[in-house]
Amino acid sequence: MRLRTLHRHPDEAHAGKINVTPLIDVVMVLIVFYLIVGQLATQRLADLDLPSTAIGALDQPDRPLVVEVAPGADGSASILADGVPVTADALEDLVRARIAERPDLAVQVRADRRAPYAQVAPVVEACRRAGLASLRLVSVREERR
Amino acid sequence: MRRRKRSALQVYQGHFGPNMTPMVDVVMVILVFFMASAAVLGPDWFIRAALPIRAATAAITDDALIRVELTLASGERGTTVSPAYLGAAPAGVSLPSAEAVPLAGLGSWLDELVRGAGAERLVVAITPSDAVPYQDVVAAHEACAVAGITRTGLATSPR
Hints:
Order of helices and strands of chain B: HHEHEEEHEHE
Number of helices of chain B: 5
Strand content of chain A: 15-25%
Strand order of the largest sheet of chain A: 1-7-6-3-4-5
CATH architecture of the largest domain in chain B: 2-Layer Sandwich
CATH class of the largest domain in chain B: Alpha Beta
Helix content of chain A: 25-40%
Largest sheet of chain B: 5 strands, mixed
Radius of gyration of chain A: 27 Å
Helix content of chain B: 25-40%
Structural class of chain B: alpha/beta
Oligomer: heterodimer
CATH architecture of the largest domain in chain A: 2-Layer Sandwich
Distance between the termini of chain B: 99 Å
Number of domains of chain B: 2
Number of helices of chain A: 3
CATH class of the largest domain in chain A: Alpha Beta
Distance between the termini of chain A: 82 Å
CATH topology of the largest domain in chain B: Nucleotidyltransferase, domain 5
Order of helices and strands of chain A: HEEEEEHEHE
CATH topology of the largest domain in chain A: Nucleotidyltransferase, domain 5
Shape of chain B: rod-shaped
Number of domains of chain A: 2
Shape of chain A: elongated
Number of strands of chain A: 7
């Protein structure tokens, strides 16, 4: 009796190999996914406990200026414009320059809900001095009370 | 006649057309990518606050408008709101008394104000003091929006 397992045809020897092409495809796409999302997430999201509101608007403006008021360990706060630390004066110049480029500039303010208003006021004043007409106070949507 | 079972390689070699497996894999991952990115990077929920210029606000000469300043102050019992009317009320308009109310009662006070004056005639400036938590500033804006007041601005005390 001839044992097939011992005398395989040369082509059949390849039948048991794993096709790694789909694995490589998926891994590559996952790498790109994490690169993009990681970069975008660090650009725009400081670790902030945003205020919550039941009403508001939902909009995704084209190239908004995201201003964050990040609380520091010593009770002070730093201002980040699109993820870059700036002073209030520099923020004013930045907003003025961006308004010159885009008169309909949308400025989104993200600040911690527990932050005293004194930390947010410099941002408000800088935007006002730069000629901005309104701000978007970003919040977390909550169910109607 | 008995059919001989084919090996995996024979099955593979007998297949016609392109191999769809990698494409389906990639399409599925891209689908997940867009679903996840839409959730993470989707539009923000926000409340709009106007930035009135003090000089311009003071120069409003439209007698039909009723200007109200809401000063937020932080105390031991939370944030209180002190309303103040800027200018005289138009004749025949009944306005609620400008007494300080807790933030939780601002909605009721604004409802009464809107009933007496009409939301379209109101211009509200919110002036928070330094110690007021940012959440309460946003809540005051929210209360105005709930009451139907669209002309709400964020004023800051001169520093």
